[in-house]
Design brief:
The chain has 328 residues and is of the alpha/beta class. The protein has 11 helices and 15 strands. Bound molecules: zinc ion.
């Protein structure tokens, strides 16, 4: 197959740090974190000196722009494994400089677009992620996503991206039209923390509302999830409690994923800062939406449920639903 490059690229600066003509067809994607909220230009400058001895095929900037440093026909020097980089398209994504090396929403969205494009152009019909290193590096069960930490003593791609590789695969597969069944039905292993923001969240003995309620969480506590079903945060997503008590909804109406200390301090929907989401919070949201009150930075963080950068009528409605504990 003739190699092509992504039409999504808006900046190109070819690095000398590459091996001409890869020796293996592209069948793998390796996503890295930059450890810096950099632009595609900065990344181009980083990879440009030959003394750097490093590159990637693509980079995603903090602003969602996509850069190219090594054409897909050539092997990048990216993952501390020649054999991996001969078969993989490597992508560096702008990230925070500290654990969990979070990626912002613009870069994440651009990454999904880029990975989808790479799969389409290279005939990768389905992305398969595994949390088992052996399956990844040996490409068992169709596994075709690898990570830098498999080949070097590094945290790359950082826990933020590592913990989302299952979601990334699901979303890309949905776009490729091959993942619908997977997306809805497959169980992904994962381990992360959620803070329950709902006042009375059902625990069920399976991943769905058709399963019996076997308990309730009322303490707004932090819980460890060990398996997920569906797209975390969306309606219809479920998480298995590490305690073994059962499954809870992972809809963002009811739980907040804890990714770092900074984000865990704000409870989504809690506008008056009393640690729970009630009708009082919905009232404040309505006042803000109507322009009768100006939100503080904390309130904006807590009250912008749909992520559009402001607190609108949509957000007020969402908070009211959270307070009422509907649909779980
Ligand atoms: Zn890396």
């Amino acid at each position: 197959m003739a190699y092509t490059n992504s039409p999504l690229v808006s900046y190109t600066k070819i690095s000398p740090n590459r091996t001409k003509n890869r020796n293996h067809a592209i069948d793998t994607v390796t996503i890295h974190c930059v450890v810096g909220q950099t632009s595609v230009q900065t990344l181009g400058d980083v990879f440009y000196p030959s003394s750097r001895q490093a590159s990637s095929n693509y980079g995603v900037g903090y602003d969602g722009k996509i850069g190219m440093y090594v054409e897909e026909k050539d092997r990048s020097w990216c993952s501390s494994s020649a054999s991996n980089d001969h078969r993989a398209v490597t992508i560096e994504v702008a990230s925070d400089t500290t654990h969990p090396y979070a990626v912002n929403a613009k870069a994440y969205a651009a990454l999904l677009d880029l990975v989808t494009d790479i799969c389409k152009r290279n005939g990768i019909k389905k992305l398969v992620w595994s949390t088992d290193k052996n399956k990844r590096i040996n490409h068992l069960n169709g596994c075709n996503i690898t990570v830098h930490r498999d080949y070097a003593n590094k945290s790359c791609p950082g826990d933020y991206l590592y913990n989302r590789l299952g979601e990334i695969a699901s979303e890309v597969n949905k776009r490729l039209g091959t993942g619908a069944a997977d997306f809805n039905n497959s169980i992904n292993s994962a381990e992360f923390l959620v803070k329950v923001i709902d006042n009375n969240l059902n625990i069920r003995n399976g991943a769905g509302t058709s399963y019996a309620v076997v308990g309730q969480i009322k303490d707004h506590g932090t819980y460890t999830i060990v398996e997920t079903k569906g797209m975390v945060g969306q309606a219809g997503s479920w998480g298995k409690l590490k305690s073994g008590k059962g499954w809870i909804s992972l809809n963002y109406y009811y739980v907040q994923r804890i990714t770092s200390q900074a984000t865990s301090s704000v409870i989504k929907g809690d506008l008056n800062g009393d640690g729970k989401v009630t009708a009082a919070d919905a009232r404040i949201a309505l006042q803000i939406a109507a322009g009768l009150q100006k939100p503080t930075a904390e309130q904006l963080k807590a009250g912008d449920i749909d992520g559009d950068g402001k607190i609108g009528a949509n957000d007020a409605r969402a908070i009211l639903r959270m307070a009422a504990g509907l649909k779980k």
